[in-house]
Amino acid sequence: MMTLYGMSASGHSYKVKLMLEQEGIAYRWVEVDIRNGDSRTPEFLAKNPCGKVPVLEIAPGEYLYESNAILTFLARGTHYWPDPAFPHAKVMEWMFFEQSSHMPYLAPARFINKFLGADDARRAELPTLLEKGYKALDIMERQLEKSLYLVNSHYSIADNALFAYTHIAHEGGFDMSRYPAIHAWIERVTQTPGFVAM
């Protein structure tokens, strides 16, 4: 049985948990609280030298980290990652977009807004994070006005990757009422087989 080392409040950990549930793969969950230093112990660093979650233990002593790498591993040979070359590449395009243009703004905005105090110095970062995050959400909205999911009409790991932090973007201070197509997409994702809430 696989073991998923993750943190319940982490969108990255949630991505992997969601995919395991949607594929019906048996796994064991181990909570790792990075705020308490759980990911900086020698034992954990032997699993992931970056000291981050999630980490998926595929077999004894075989560890995979970076959430999108884990998603591609789990989705190989399934309908969650289509085989034809072009849609296959489009899925990857959205997953790279998530890492470069989406998550770097939505995730820290949520962290600052939800977990840090009102007088924390990092709150000064919020205007820039919101500005750049809205640009990413605008791009998603335009795509989802044209298709049910990010790549054509089928749910894929691209949707999984973007769903994690998009569906909780309001916790970072984003006004999601501006995005009716994203709202409808979020509802569709929650109806996919095996869906579990964060």
TrEMBL record:
<dbReference type="Pfam" id="PF00043">
    <property type="entry name" value="GST_C"/>
</dbReference>
<comment type="similarity">
    <text>Belongs to the GST superfamily.</text>
</comment>
<feature type="domain" description="GST N-terminal">
    <location>
        <begin position="1"/>
        <end position="82"/>
    </location>
</feature>
<dbReference type="InterPro" id="IPR004045">
    <property type="entry name" value="Glutathione_S-Trfase_N"/>
</dbReference>
<feature type="domain" description="GST C-terminal">
    <location>
        <begin position="84"/>
        <end position="198"/>
    </location>
</feature>
<dbReference type="InterPro" id="IPR010987">
    <property type="entry name" value="Glutathione-S-Trfase_C-like"/>
</dbReference>
<dbReference type="InterPro" id="IPR036249">
    <property type="entry name" value="Thioredoxin-like_sf"/>
</dbReference>
<dbReference type="InterPro" id="IPR004046">
    <property type="entry name" value="GST_C"/>
</dbReference>
<dbReference type="InterPro" id="IPR040079">
    <property type="entry name" value="Glutathione_S-Trfase"/>
</dbReference>
<protein>
    <submittedName>
        <fullName>Glutathione S-transferase</fullName>
    </submittedName>
</protein>
<dbReference type="Pfam" id="PF02798">
    <property type="entry name" value="GST_N"/>
</dbReference>
<dbReference type="InterPro" id="IPR036282">
    <property type="entry name" value="Glutathione-S-Trfase_C_sf"/>
</dbReference>
